Amino acid sequence: KLTSPALQPVITPELVQGRVHLRCSYSPPSPDPPVQYRVLWSRLSSPGKREQIHQETTPQPFSHMEMDGAKLRLGDTVFCTVTAFRRGAPEQQSLPEDSKGFYAGIKFFPESLEIAEDGKEHLLTVLSTVPISCPGQDDSCKITLQLSIEDLGKSSQAPGPPDIVLSACQVDLLPGPCSGDSCAAATVTVTAVTDFAQDGNSLSRVSARPAAPRDLLWGAHTPSDVKVTVRDLPTGNCYSFTDPHIITFDGWRYDSSKMGTFLLCRSDARPFEVHVRQWDCGGHRSATACNCGVAAR
């Protein structure tokens, strides 16, 4: 075996003449004697299984593969495996070294969310791990993603309207330099719908789909979804019933026998209030008022 320092192959994305490429870089051993590299590109075809897509022998400490939409597609998790050997003596070779798997495409961060019916906003980032490219339209280059929500059902009932809302229905990914595992990113906020019902936890799915891309590479891409679990929270209730008995949010009990229109409830935090109208329902025998109308905004 050819003993050498670790090659440590790493895959990074880059643009080459406006086209998206992946670059496998590795640390060359000492330059003397001259060494060549066998680079094997593969992608994850199913969990735990890889499919070989390209192999080459090169004296360079790097290898390129274009994301052409055929051999290498967006959505692939890609690996490069590098073996070093002496020129003219291929039997003297190092042990093959694998890179980490590189996911090439659009993904959500975090990959799943658990939120509660408490009105709080939660950040959801949509990012591309490869550069945004639009050959022939550099002046207005962007990838527009259409966002959608699907209800996967509550723990107590069948699917219905989604239990979450997004701050935007679409986001734009714009060209820019890559940093870390992100070459372009946009954020939206996710909020749980407060439905005032004890109806169990619910599960929703947020999807992103490229909207009318001109480049086939992006048009054929279906990014992974993100699952959002909404935790049901008990809701405060207040009551006014019959000849009105009133129970407030904090459990106090009152009786009201006055006639007229009254403010029953008002929120300090948002434009929400409830008015109630009480009319005489006791006749000549007793002065009793009953609920007869309600208005809410």
Automatic annotation (TrEMBL):
VWFD domain residues: 236-297
Q: Where is the signal peptide?
A: none
Q: Which UniProt keywords apply?
A: Disulfide bond, Signal
State a GO cellular component annotated for this protein: cell surface
* Pfam name, any one: Ig_VWDE
GO terms of molecular function: signaling receptor binding
Q: What is this protein called?
A: VWDE protein
